[in-house]
From TrEMBL:
This is HDC protein. Its cofactor is pyridoxal 5'-phosphate. Belongs to the group II decarboxylase family. It comes from Branchiostoma lanceolatum. It holds the Pfam family Pyridoxal_deC. It comes from the Eukaryota. Keywords: Decarboxylase, Lyase, Pyridoxal phosphate. GO terms for molecular function: carboxy-lyase activity; pyridoxal phosphate binding. One of its GO terms (cellular component) is cytoplasm. The modification N6-(pyridoxal phosphate)lysine is found at K450. The lineage of its organism: Eukaryota, Metazoa, Chordata, Cephalochordata, Leptocardii. Residues 124-215 are annotated as: Disordered. GO terms for biological process: carboxylic acid metabolic process; catecholamine biosynthetic process. Residues 124-134, 170-197 have a biased composition (Polar residues).
Length: 632
């Protein structure tokens, strides 16, 4: 069989494994046993036949290599991709403002799935696929907004764009590039193995996975549509749930982590990556007053952090599976739902869950907790875990940790603290007293993707006695790793969690802290506490509004004495133009509108706009003229 023409590739030296001797043998124009093959040398063909069944095709291997080398990008290619990606990021971030013409928190339904174009004017920003007017080396002048950058020109009013393999002109947005045409408002697209026609507001399928690739421009153009179809978590008007935020250094940290791509869970693979993670864990431990013997890990979020902690609690307090069905977990009625969810994953679906009522300050009622436990003990049940929360998601209330610790100690229970939302407010001097007793908890879960503004997917678990965490997770390596040099003294992250091939999460947390310093995060969080207090005081003075005094950065308010539907109508009126996003919650049977001020882009002027929105909405509802001022 002809396998290759060596005269066309004189630089190659081909290596083959001699199966009989298990040694590598180098050959230029001959092959070791056990191959059967032939090849051409200049004008003649030489065939070598041996007794083996293996046939090796060098020409096929060469073609595979040429294709695989496409993945090996050059510095110029990486620079071009990053530059174009940054333009898309800038276009999106430009819209995260209440003042921007398309600054919706949630885009109106009629625009979702469509590319938006802001006409030239005050902002001189056009958002949509590849219509970004920002970046290095750009120039901008006059009402026609002529801009230029590397390989890119845009001019108005006809909005002509040109760049490598790309032309865009006129209001119909005709685009052309390799294997690609896009025209008119219906956005007919054609390309390899692809035709899209009449893309409407609900046709938001991503670019399909195809046998052959497409240009970076097409990929980015498709991806950037996500900005028009999402809750914009980083928007200053996003005041629902617990909004996620991300800073530029955090994004760079993710880029570096993915580019260097170390296996960060084992000292033998990358000691420095392990040290970075341990530095973050120990720093957070010190914030809460934990001893140096604590251990922990960065996780994908608060639920996984809680699950790692609960696994350690289970192994320590309920070592026999036959006792799972009589084991009892105690929560408050405001504990995050992710805690109980973990029981199923842990194989403890049959365990008993007690939801303890909260008092008039929305804290776990410790007297009722004690009664629950006493009753369970009398019924031969096994109280093993109680969860306190420092910053409930609904209200922002903080459970009395010292009192709960005393009860847990009396009944030999594990105390876990859910600090996912509120935890990093411990940085603020005005809030430190709220975390009294947390240093005595057996474990803590906290989310850097909340209080440290890291990207989603960044949780952290801490266990006070690190040895217990290690005992629950120590990895027994397979034989394929038997040659790896290990040190029993090393505390590898893979031995402190069930995760193994995990993303290197440390840079997304560490880089912003190193660049900005802890003081910047402290000030940002303190600002949110002050803004919540400011909102409370302003709403407290409004007629028809009942407002709950905040503990952290969550404010509840409502119109008292009316139906829930009337309060939902108030919510719709506040959020109808998409500039603000808030939700309702029900606490102790009462429906409230819920505002959480947590985004680092939210400042006093944004809160003032929100307050005016509330006032105008109440006026439109034409409620009876009553002076009502109540704090509940």
């Amino acid at each position: 069989m002809d396998v290759t023409n060596f005269s066309s590739q004189p630089h190659w030296r081909h290596c083959y494994r001699n199966i009989c001797t298990d040694n590598f043998v180098e050959r230029k124009h001959s092959f070791p046993s056990p191959f059967t093959t032939s090849f051409k040398t200049h004008s003649r063909t030489k065939k070598i036949t041996m007794s083996s069944e293996v046939v090796f095709n060098l020409e096929y291997l060469t073609r595979l290599e040429e294709s695989a080398r496409t993945l090996e990008s050059t510095p110029q290619q990486r620079s071009e991709m990053m530059f174009k990606a940054q333009r898309e990021v800038d276009a999106y971030l430009e819209q995260l403002s209440l003042d921007h013409p398309t600054g919706w928190v949630i885009p109106p339904k009629e625009t979702q799935g469509q590319d938006k174009l802001v006409q030239p004017g005050q902002y001189q920003v056009q958002s949509g696929p590849n219509q970004v007017q920002s970046g290095p080396d750009r120039a901008q002048s006059g009402p026609d907004q002529v801009q230029s950058g590397p390989d890119w020109v845009q001019s108005a009013p006809d909005q002509a764009q040109s760049g490598p393999d790309r032309v865009q002109s006129g209001p119909d947005q005709v685009q052309s590039g390799p294997d690609q045409v896009q025209s008119g408002p219906d956005q007919v697209q054609s390309g390899p193995d692809q035709v899209q026609s009449g893309r409407g507001p609900h046709e938001t399928e991503p670019l399909p996975i195809q046998e052959n690739g497409v240009s970076i421009d097409e990929v980015l153009r498709d991806f950037s549509r996500i900005g028009n179809e999402m809750e914009r978590e980083g928007h200053p008007g996003h005041m629902a749930y617990v909004p996620g935020n991300s800073t530029a250094p955090a994004a760079i940290g993710d880029f570096l982590a993915a580019s260097f791509n170390p296996y960060s869970l084992n000292v033998a693979s990358c000691r420095r990556a392990v040290k970075m993670q341990q530095m973050i864990v120990q720093w957070v431990g010190r914030l809460f007053g934990y001893p140096s013997a604590c251990a922990g890990n960065l996780t994908s979020g608060g639920t996984v952090a809680t699950m790692v902690a609960m696994t350690t609690a289970r192994d320590h307090k309920v070592p026999r599976s036959k006792d799972y069905s009589r084991s009892v977990l105690y929560l408050s009625e405001l504990t995050h739902d992710g805690v109980a969810k973990c029981l199923s994953t842990l194989g403890m679906r049959e365990a008993v869950v007690r939801k303890v009522p909260v008092d008039d300050k929305y804290r776990m009622d410790v007297n009722i907790l004690r009664k629950f436990i006493e009753n369970d003990v009398q019924n031969n049940l096994l109280p093993f875990l109680v969860v306190a929360t420092t910053g409930t998601t609904d209200v922002g209330s903080v459970d009395p940790v010292p009192a709960i610790r005393a009860v847990a100690t009396q009944y030999n229970m594990w105390l876990h603290v859910d600090a996912c939302y509120g935890g990093f407010f411990v940085l603020c001097n005005s809030a430190k007293h709220l975390f009294e007793g947390v240093e005595t908890a057996d474990s803590i879960a906290v989310d850097p993707h909340k209080g440290l503004y890291a990207p989603f997917g960044t949780g952290l678990v801490l266990v006070r006695n690190g040895t217990l965490l290690r005992n629950s997770n120590t990895r027994q390596h397979g034989n394929y790793m038997q040659d790896q040099l290990t040190n029993p003294e090393d505390w590898n992250p893979e031995d402190l969690t069930f995760e193994q091939s995990a993303h290197f999460r440390a840079p997304r947390v560490l880089l912003p802290l190193q660049l900005y310093g802890v003081a910047t995060f402290r000030d940002a969080l303190q600002e949110k506490l002050e803004l919540a207090k400011y909102l409370y005081l302003r709403l407290k003075g409004q007629a028809h509004i009942q407002v709950v005094e905040p503990v952290l950065s969550t404010v509840l308010f409502r119109i008292p004495g009316v139906s829930d539907n009337t309060n939902r109508a108030l919510l719709r009126e506040i959020t109808t133009d998409g500039r603000f996003f808030i939700t309702t919650t029900t606490v102790k049977g009462v429906l409230y509108l819920r505002v959480i001020i947590f985004c680092y882009r939210t400042h006093r002027q944004d809160v003032d706009v929100f307050i005016n929105k509330v006032k105008d909405a109440v006026v439109k509802m034409e409620l009876p003229e009553v002076e009502f001022c109540h704090a509940g």
